[in-house]
């Protein structure tokens, strides 16, 4: 599906006047015909806008995941809702960096004896809880 707004250099909230002017200035007959059929009829435009928002969200999600179309798709209709490959590569590198940081933290936890440290923390919490309960009982005079 083509991004008619992008192809006509219009914002998604363009007025009817802006759309008519963009259609008149458009030199591509097929694009002009499609955009006229979709954007000038109110019901068609509402349906298109809902689908446009969904596809734009999917394009942003794909870019955040580091997914992009190959070089042979650049400039085609399939690329209308995707971000540029450079942005997607940056997203992929950021994701790799976060995974690497998580792995380093996990390795540190394992080196410090994570299970032993967790057991000591649990025992300390139980002791503090017992002491707090004993103090409360003494204060209330139950013992």
UniProtKB/TrEMBL annotation:
Going by the UniProt record, its keywords in alphabetical order are: Membrane, Transmembrane, Transmembrane helix
- What are the TM regions of this chain, as residue ranges? 116-142
Q: Which domain of life is it from?
A: Bacteria
For this protein's source organism, the top of the classification is:
Bacteria, Pseudomonadati, Pseudomonadota, Gammaproteobacteria, Oceanospirillales
Biological source species? Halomonas cibimaris
Descriptive protein name: J domain-containing protein
